[in-house]
Amino acid sequence: QVQLVESGGGLVQAGGSLRLSCAASGHIFSSINLGWFRQAPGKEREFVAAVSWSGSRTTYADSVKGRFFISRDNAKNTVYLEMNSLKPEDTAVYYCAVGYGSSSGGYNYWGQGTQVTVSS
User: Fold this and answer.
1) CB 91 within 8 A of CB 81
2) What count of other Cβ atoms lies within 10 Å of the Cβ of residue 36?
3) Rounded CA separation 52/50 (Å)
4) What stretch of H or E contains 22?
5) Which residue of 30, 104, 107, 118 has the lowest C-beta tally within 10 Å?
6) Pairing state of beta strands 114-119 and 10-13?
């Protein structure tokens, strides 16, 4: 069992930046792969980024590549999502999850989410 708690969401103007954090407990953090997904109102949950257990491998959705960066600090049991050059279409609830790859089916524990709103 893994517990995940996201934080760092909020309201930001287009072009701005936010850093999301996801703190994990209940498992050996350094052995698990982690990802970020997002879900906008009326849309399906979509993959954003993922990082391997060591941090050596990362993958991103095309829509955020070059703007978002995923990282992890195994000493703090935390994974981060640095979001830059934010656009109104980035508005969504952001979730972290345990797993890897771009399909939500590859993830088995999810946090409660944190709201990100980007104003134009």
Assistant:
1) no
2) 26
3) 7
4) strand 18-25
5) 30
6) parallel
